[in-house]
């Protein structure tokens, strides 16, 4: 029975807006997350966010009944969650949509995969059941991302009265690549999302790929509408936050580390296979090699924050990033100049400081749903910043005209683009930064979310 106080707007995602850590004295420390969804939802009243408990702190919070208003954390069995999140979502679905398998040897879909898939189904079912319990009659439910692809289908069966949306924050694989998945699994994923009234994506390109998969594999998208909402940067928040004292302090520290009179090539990412951090460093090495005039005159400021460290490939990649950075520093560094400044401890204020002082921002993912760094830098930049941008990032659709666009696999072309960016005329750089900032903020998070809600209810 649905209570009359049940929520009218529900959001479901694996990672919620808050997380808990257990302190040594046994008390719980809560931390609020950031990101487009958090700011997007801030304008909405009478809402409930359903998310998974992700670690021991979260699980303890659920057990103690500690929660934030408007948030329901699901304490899904830790083994089931690990199979669903690490096994299926991050090792299979993320790899398919970002096309990062080394296909001669992987993927391998065997009995272990089938076992994990059963957990993925159970985890999606747990979300669908919680949503069915919490949603008011005719409520709007916005299901987020590849972790929860099966939720719309299950929820539709449980609660035909609801308006269900699904939003993909990742790219969508083209049909030939999507077909790596076992046939029944691919079909189940598509049918899961098609349980929604509306399936939405960050760019036209990913939406078309999804429609392509549905058409080829199922013969069409059925009654589901497909839409595009290109999440933009949160200009008001960024401009205010980036002028706070802690950011100023970090700018001073960074300036000291870079050294007076030197230019900076800045990148900020999760240490993520799809972000192409290693090739970015190879391009920087090629720049120093082929254009010795840049030696001692530029620093590659690379912030690569820990991500998905339960997975061996991510740990290996993290080590590789460190190894390549160390190699460049050993080869070219001088007593007075460290060519690569690699920081791996997550610090948002320091990221903003780097955005402000960057001469060049390097955003070269092999594939990326949107990439908000590309949109945030031009908004925050103090003196204008040249953007070297991969054509495989979703942001390319909106920023391509004023960025220096690269094929992310082409190290030589990326090195050439870095040189062009470093030597760009100041006035041109300033004018481009203004246009980039305007394009980047065309759809701020709150409107991005409300547009989806309106479209779902229409
Ligand atoms: C991408 C995904 C999000 C995810 C985020 C961080 O942006 O689309 O769903 O939350 O990466 O990854 P994590 O695995 O740490 O949640």
TrEMBL record:
Gene Ontology MF: a single term: alpha,alpha-trehalose-phosphate synthase (UDP-forming) activity
Domain of life: Bacteria
Pfam families referenced in this protein's UniProt entry, alphabetically: Glyco_transf_20 (PF00982)
EC number: 2.4.1.15
Keywords: Glycosyltransferase, Transferase
Family, similarity comment: Belongs to the glycosyltransferase 20 family.
Protein name as it appears in the record: Trehalose 6-phosphate synthase
Organism: Streptomyces clavifer
């Amino acid at each position: 029975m649905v209570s009359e106080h049940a929520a009218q707007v529900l959001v479901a995602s694996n990672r919620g807006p808050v997380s808990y850590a257990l302190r040594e004295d046994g008390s719980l420390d809560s931390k609020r997350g950031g990101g487009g969804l958090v700011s997007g939802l801030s304008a909405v009243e009478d809402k409930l966010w359903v998310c998974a408990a992700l670690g021991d702190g979260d699980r303890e919070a659920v057990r103690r009944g500690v929660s934030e208003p408007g948030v329901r954390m699901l304490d899904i069995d830790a083994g089931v969650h690990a199979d669903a999140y690490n096994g299926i979502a991050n090792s299979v679905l993320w790899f398919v949509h970002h096309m990062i398998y080394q296909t001669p040897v992987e993927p391998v879909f065997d009995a272990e995969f089938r076992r994990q898939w059963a957990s993925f189904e159970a985890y999606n079912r747990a979300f669908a059941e919680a949503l069915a319990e919490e949603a008011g009659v005719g409520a709007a439910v916005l299901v987020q991302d590849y972790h929860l692809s099966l939720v719309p289908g299950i929820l539709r069966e449980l609660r035909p009265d609801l308006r269900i949306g699904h939003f993909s924050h990742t790219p969508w694989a083209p049909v030939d690549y999507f077909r790596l998945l076992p046939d029944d699994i691919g079909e189940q994923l598509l049918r899961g999302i098609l349980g929604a009234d509306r399936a939405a994506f960050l760019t036209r390109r990913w939406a078309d790929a999804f429609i392509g998969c549905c058409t080829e594999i199922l013969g069409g998208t059925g009654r589901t509408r497909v839409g595009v909402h290109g999440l933009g940067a949160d200009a008001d928040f960024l401009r205010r936050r980036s002028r706070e004292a802690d950011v100023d302090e970090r700018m001073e520290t960074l300036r000291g580390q870079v050294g007076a009179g030197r230019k900076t090539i800045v990148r900020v990412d999760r240490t993520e296979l799809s972000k192409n951090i290693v090739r970015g460093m190879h391009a920087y090495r090629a720049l120093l090699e082929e254009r010795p005039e840049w030696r001692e005159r530029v620093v590659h400021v690379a912030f690569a924050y820990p991500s998905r460290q339960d997975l061996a490939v991510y740990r290996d990649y993290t080590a590789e990033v460190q190894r390549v950075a160390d190699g460049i520093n050993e080869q070219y560094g001088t007593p007075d100049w460290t060519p690569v400044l690699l920081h791996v401890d997550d610090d948002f204020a320091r990221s903003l400081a780097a955005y402000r002082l960057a001469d060049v921002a390097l955003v070269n993912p092999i594939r990326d749903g949107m990439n908000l760094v590309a949109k945030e830098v031009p908004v925050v930049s103090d003196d204008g910043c040249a953007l070297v941008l991969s054509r495989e990032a979703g942001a390319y659709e909106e920023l391509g005209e004023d960025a220096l666009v690269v094929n992310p696999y082409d190290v030589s072309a990326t090195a050439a683009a870095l040189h062009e960016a470093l030597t760009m005329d100041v006035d041109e750089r300033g004018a481009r930064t203004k246009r980039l900032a305007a394009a980047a903020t065309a759809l701020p998070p709150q409107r991005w979310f409300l547009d989806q809600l309106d479209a779902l209810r229409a």
